[in-house]
Each structure stands twice: as C-alpha cells, then as structure tokens.
Amino acid sequence: MQEKKKLIVLTGPTGVGKTKLSIALAHALDAEIISADSMQVYRGMDIGTDKIKRKDMDGIPHYLVDVLSPTEPFNVFLFQSMAKNALQEIEAHGRIPMLVGGTGFYIQAVLYDIDFDKEDDDAYRKELELFAENGGEDAVKELHERLRSIDPDAAAQIHPNNVKRVIRALSFYRETGKKISVHNEAERKKESPYDFHYFVLTDDRAVLYERINARVDAMMENGLVEEVRRLIAEGVREDMTSMQGLGYREMLAYFNGAYPLEKAVELIKRNTRHFAKRQLTWYTRERNVTMIDKRDYDRDDKKILEAMLRMIHEA
Q1: Domain boundaries, given as residue ranges, for the chain
Q2: What is the C-alpha to C-alpha distance for residues 84 and 30, in angstroms, rounded to an integer?
Q3: Beta sheet of 96-100, edge-to-edge order
Q4: Are 204 and 186 contacting, i.e. CB atoms less than 8 angstroms apart?
Q5: I want to staple 181 with a disulfide (CB 3.0 to 4.6 A). Which of 13, 153, 247, 248 is the partner?
C-alpha cells in the first residue's frame, strides 16, 4: 500500500488568531502554507480580508493569496484544483503542506478529495441566478424556501444569503434527483488520501466577539472605505464573487445609499459574529479534528505550538 502524504490543517473561526500561530507551526515543521480562504485569493482586497502582509509571512511561502483579479469568479471547484496543484509543488520542495484558513467547506474539499458532481444543469442554474439577481431579497428567501421543501438538512446548513450554494443544491437535486445533504454526508465519510492532523483553534465566544468588533474597527481605521471605493472605480460589481465577502457587501450597500456608514460598520460586526458562530458549528460536525481551546493554554501561542507539535510527533 502506498504511504499517505502528510498534511496539516489549522483552522478556526474568524478572529481567533490563526495567522501568527500558523507561521510558527510552519517554521517548526518546515512547512509551506496554502490559504484556505475564499477571499484572500483576490488581489487588492487586503483590508477587508485581513490578509497577511508579506513581512508577516516571515519567509514562509503562501499559496492561493493574491492570485486572482476581483473581477474573476472563484468557487470550491477552482479552489480544490488550485490547492491540489499547490500540494504537488510543496511536496516537490520536500516540505509539508499546511492548509490554513477558516473556510471549512474548502478544507473538506481537499482533505477528502470530494467529488462535487459538476454536471449541473447550466441553463437551470442560470435561470435561478437571474431570478435571484432580479428579485432581490424576496427572491433569495424564496430560493431558500424551495431548498427547505426538498432538502431540509441542506437548508439548515446553508445560510439563505449564500445564494451560490443554495442554487447549487437546487440544481443538484434537479439533475440527480438526490438531496445534496445526503451526497455531502456520503462524501464526508470517505477516507482521506492524506495522513493529516486537523487542528481547530477556539476560544471563549465572548472574547472572540470582542476581537471581531475590534478588528472591524481597525479595518475602518486602516482604510476599508477607500479600498472599496477603489474597487468600485476599477469596475468591480456587487454581483461578483469577490463582493460577497464580509465587509465588502455591506460597504457596497453603503455606497449604493442603502444605509449610512455607521450602520454598515454595525452590520459588518454583526454579520462577522454570526459567521464565526456558523464556523464553530461546522467544526463540531467534522470528524477526526483536534479542538485546541486557547483557554486551556492561557492563550499563550508558545504553549499551543508545543502542544500541537507534541500531538504531531506522538501520532
């Protein structure tokens, strides 16, 4: 039997403090990092994504950061393909690949080599996209209700505003006659082709929410308004994938006159807190994960790093 290749995963809710720890872990393991983030892939979107700065990478190569224009689409299929290419490159360097980021679905796609059954009904999918685009909030709610009627489990797992995933689930059902929740559960039960360690960094929810609020305030001070204004001037539109990210969709609504700036900031904080809560729910459903509660290590990154290295070497 062929020996499985090693893979390290470091994830956790937004704002928990993955970035600094990932650099220390990469140095300790002689690893290179693949970003498992749905927005840091875009160039020129630095503030709203809280993207790692080149100087903070401390010489650790990072993949899937700053590789696409904000006008280009990005989805889990593309991520899976690009991540596999990065894995091969890192392995060719003789180093260990690390997946670092908070997009659980993207991590799962690589970790279990998920087959997404890409043969969707393209015409039907476009019809639903147009319906959502032209019908606004009411249409988005209706699509989610359609999904709830055929696949309640999928509807419970997919946020109504995640229109792309709602449409994909509806399209999958129409094309195959099967619930996407059942398909995804079967894919989740697949054995991973990797010898992996899957670390989930967590913290007290109140502390996490305080960090999120402070981070949004810092984004505003660092120029999020100017960043979004520049993106608009460069031709980025609200229907593009890049503008579905937290911070960007709320700021676009502000620029479109939907509400004042203070309300936009309040919504970014609220929506980011809700997103962190959904991330935590996702990780508790995942199997073969090691939960690292920062409270158990006095929130000391050095102690956390030592514990993770001990778990990796003792396995």
Answers
A1: 5-114+191-314, 122-186
A2: 19
A3: 62-63, 31-35, 96-100, 5-11, 194-202, 290-293
A4: no
A5: 153
Whole-model pTM over 0.85: no
> Encoding tokens for residue 225?
């308004």
Which tokens in the block code for residue 100? 């670092």
pLDDT in tens, 73-90: 998 889 999 999 999 999
Residue 173: CB partners within 8 Å, gap ≥ 6? 150, 151, 179, 180
5-114+191-314 and 122-186 in the same fold: no
The parts of the chain modelled with pLDDT lower than 50 are 119
31-35 and 96-100 strand pairing = parallel
Q: Are 63 and 97 in contact (CB under 8 A)?
A: no
Alpha helices in 67-179 (DSSP H): 76-92, 104-111, 122-150, 152-157, 163-176
User: Within its chain, how far is the Cα of 82 from the centroid?
Assistant: 15
Side-chain-facing half-sphere of 114: CA atoms under 13 Å: 24
**Do residues 190 and 280 lie in contact, with contact meaning Cβ atoms separated by under 8 Å?**
no
CATH number attached to the domain at 5-114+191-314: 3.40.50.300
Across-strand partners of 134?
A: none
Q: For a pLDDT cut of 70, what percent of the chain falls above it?
A: 97
**CATH architecture under which domain 122-186 falls:** Orthogonal Bundle (1.10)
Q: Are 277 and 271 in contact (CB under 8 A)?
A: no
* Residues paired with 198 in a beta bridge: 9
